[in-house]
Design brief:
By secondary structure, this protein is α+β, with helices and mostly antiparallel strands. Helices cover about 30% and strands about 35% of the residues. It has 2 domains: about 1-70, Orthogonal Bundle (Arc Repressor Mutant, subunit A); about 75-230, 3-Layer(aba) Sandwich (Chorismate lyase). The chain has helices at about 5-20, 30-40, 40-55, 85-90, 110-115, 155, 160-170, 185-190, and strands at about 60, 65-70, 75, 95-105, 125-130, 135-145, 175-185, 200-210, 215-225, 230. It has a 6-stranded antiparallel beta sheet. Strands 1-2 form a two-stranded antiparallel ribbon. Strand 8 (about 200-210) and strand 9 (about 215-225) form a beta hairpin. Helix 1 packs across helix 3 and helix 2 packs across helix 3.
Length: about 240
């Protein structure tokens, strides 16, 4: 029982953070105060705080203490190239995908420019709503050049397309060019997302390339403004 004391402290503090009892940017009580409050050892308190830090609930600042982070938003890696399934699994959240539209189309003039194709080149169009923890938070509008993705099904789109492309088709997805901007919400956004009163949305455009530098996918991902923070790690060059 004593050995699991840090888990009970951790779970109690998580509950307070998730319920809003401990608000973002709030400073947690000091280690000494927590030792007295929970009638336990400093080592036990430190284990609980370390676990909170590792799971993204607090930030420990040397010499200043521990501060509550905003857990209502998910970290979206700017520089990474990860699938929604991989992102959700990393966060440990229940997830799902709703396929709103799936078709093989002839690209219009705008899509021809985005994918570097002609009107005679067939393109897979996939419109999907991404659900995490019971909320519709991303609208993904994917377009794949059929030349590189000869077969695609609605069932595949309900899971992970990247998993299918890499494991079944053997494609080597290498890098992406990304564009980020804030846009006004559209009727389509309001139809497919749980938008509350939001008037704006974060748009991420992806131009995705294979390892032979061929552009095979263009994606427009529309993210709820209240659910994401976009993070990156940068190192200054010398």
């Amino acid at each position: 029982m004593y050995e699991n004391k840090y888990l009970s402290i951790y779970e109690e503090l998580v509950e307070k953070i998730q319920s809003g009892q401990l608000k973002p940017s709030t400073k947690l009580p000091s280690e000494n105060e927590l030792v007295k409050e929970y009638a336990t050892s400093r080592e036990t308190v430190r284990k609980a705080l370390t676990m909170l830090s590792q799971n993204g609930y607090i930030q420990k600042i040397r010499g200043k203490g521990s501060y509550v982070l905003d857990v209502s938003k998910y970290d979206f890696p700017i520089s990474g190239l990860v699938s929604f399934k991989e992102l959700a699994q990393k966060m440990g959240k229940p997830w799902g995908t709703i396929v709103n539209e799936f078709a093989l189309i002839s690209p219009d003039s705008q899509l021809q420019k985005q994918l570097n194709v002609t009107e005679k080149d067939p393109v897979w169009k996939v419109i999907r709503t991404r659900v995490m923890d019971g909320e519709k938070i991303i609208l993904d509008k994917d377009f794949f050049n059929k030349k590189y993705v000869p077969i695609l099904t609605k069932e595949i789109c309900e899971g992970s397309i990247y998993e299918y492309l890499e494991q079944d088709l053997g494609l080597k997805i290498s890098f992406a060019k990304k564009e980020f901007f804030v846009d006004e919400t559209t009727a389509e956004d309001r139809m497919f997302l749980d938008l509350q009163d939001d008037k704006h949305i974060v748009v991420v455009k992806n131009y995705v390339y294979l390892d032979n530098a061929n552009l095979f996918q263009y994606t427009e991902s529309r993210h709820r403004l209240d659910k994401f923070r976009f993070v990156d790690f940068a190192r200054r060059g010398h």
